[in-house]
Structure prediction request, 114 residues.
Amino acid sequence: MHKETLSFLVGLFLYMPLFAGAAGPIAVLDNPTPDIWFISDFIVTLFDLIVYIVTPLIAVFLMYAGFLFVSAKGNETQITKAKMVLLWTCVGAAVILGAKAFAIAIEGTIDSLR
Prediction:
């Protein structure tokens, strides 16, 4: 890329908010957590987000473990690998769900102190 083109693009990027202000905002960011006023609400919302993100990953790794079991065809090293993937997927799921239960318990405790 030419030096003049690069400096033009950088300048355009830096001064674009000045031009966009006349026509209105380019994008409006809404607060995804408008009802959070207390730390207990924040903790529960955070763990809800983590569970929401991790749940599909758990499902993918369970399918991957199943695929490893099917494709092992009696090979002991592949079966051992599939068992380890299944074990650690279940351990990860238990940790995430346990953390969610712990967050709910913290919320209940803090709410009872208010």
The radius of gyration is 24 Å. The helical segments are 3-23, 39-72, 76-113.
